[in-house]
Amino acid sequence: MRTVSMHDRRRAMVRRHHLAGAAGTPEEVTRSLVALHATDPASVYLSVLARSAASTLSDVSAALYDRRSLVRWMAMRRTLFVFPREDIPLVQAAVSTPLAAVLRRRLISQLERNGSEPPVDGDPAAWIDELERRVERALSRRGTATGGQLRSDEPALATRIPARAPSERPQLVTTSLLTLMSAAGRLVRGTPTGPWTSRHHRWEPIGQWWPDGLPDVDPIRAQRDLARRWLTRFGPATFEDLQWWTGWTKTTTGQALAQLPIETVDLHGAEGITLTDPDDEPGSEEPEPTATLLPALDPTPMGWKSRDWFLGIDSRSLFDRAGNIGPTLWWDGEIIGSWAVTPHGDVRTTVLADRGVAAAQAIERAAATLQHRLQGAVVTPAARTPLERSISEEAR
After folding, report:
1. How far apart are the C-alpha atoms of 114 and 109, rounded to whole Å?
2. Which of 253, 361, 385, 393 could disulfide-pair with 243, CB 3.0 to 4.6 Å?
């Protein structure tokens, strides 16, 4: 069995994920990672800036909202991602359509179990189907709308589902139904209602992005192709890494891999998998060590379930209680610290693993460059971690 060392994996990651900042456009960055995490809208912009020295905040906005070459989509693990627009049919078939079915069953179950205020008239499943159709018509009339505007047009969206367990919170149907409809490919998240860091957006009809509707893709082929893309960008890795990233069952993951030319490798003591015919063979040149500031929920550290091979410091300082990673500071493919933006717009860093003078100087330059490119914006990540909080509070 061929052995792949931690050094080999880090070297491939730095090159494939453009951690030296050599990517040209937001689209190139996104393709190099399969997708960008978009739960926190600011992470999309910061992930691009970290990998493309030539891109600006305006360039990212233009890709998302002017060219519409990138689109936010509900996909793996019920998480928002940004994908290249041409990849959405594949993603829809591979993960989003099954996810929509789960979300629909969950909403029906909540209505049946918890009831609602006012009560749903008749069968909850039929009620949801009819409300979806009315929401689509309302959105088509407006062309673009916030959730609040749609609720004004369709008051049934304000139906309240009370809590029936300590772990639950009362909720309006609005968020659950619109999330379900987006996962089903019936509407699209459009422009933000505020600045680029805003977590609120407008909805648009699917026909404004795909006039003839989303093209149909065979689910089995879509799962195979998604697994191949992930292995090309994140392999070699473990079976569990792929299963975690996609949110698939063990059976679905195995079926997808069974259609691919897979080689079993020794990942520095663990069994891993890699493609026998990778799309990008590694170069012979050793990449120069580079400093990179990646945002919270960046797709690189969130690309694997097992992360020990690139963690140079205690993981407890980098992750929140839900397992989400905060801002990370990288040197030569290894996380050695964190960073934060102060309330005054200054980028501050903390290094917990000393990697020498060259690393310290490169990190200082990278922080200064990012501060300049942020143009005074203050970014507070959605995933607040102990280390990031300490840097922010220290600067107050």
Report:
1. 8
2. 253
Nearest to 293 by CA among 344, 316, 327, 332: 327
- Whole-angstrom distance, CA of residue 392 vs CA of residue 204: 36
Going by C-alpha positions, the residue among 60, 53, 58, 99 that lies closest to residue 76 is: 99
* pLDDT tens-digit series, residues 350-359: 999 999 999 9
Phi, psi of 242 (to 5 degrees): -65, -45
For residues 325 and 385, is the Cβ–Cβ distance under 8 A?
yes
Domain 87-208 in CATH 1.20.58: no
CB hemisphere CA count around 74 (13 angstroms): 22
CA angle 259, 265, 269 (to 5 degrees): 140
Summarised one tens digit per residue, pLDDT across range 376-396 is 999 999 888 989 988 987 766
pTM of the complete model: 0.95
Nearest-5° Cα angle at 45, 241 to 279:
45
Q: What is the pLDDT of residue 371?
A: 96
What are the tens digits of pLDDT across the range 333-345? 999 999 999 988 9
Residue 261 has phi, psi (to 5 degrees) of -75, 100
**In the chain, where the domains are located:** 87-208, 311-394
Burial class (CB in 10 A: 0-12, 13-18, 19+), 396: exposed
Contacts for 380 with CB less than 8 Å, ≥ 6 apart? 341, 392
> Distance between CA 147 and CA 139 in Å, rounded?
10
The Cα 77–Cα 91 span in angstroms is 12
Cis peptide leading into 26, omega within 30 of 0?
no
Dihedral of the alpha carbons of 321, 322, 324, 328, in degrees to the nearest 10: 0
Inter-helix orientation angle 173-183/97-114, to 10°: 160
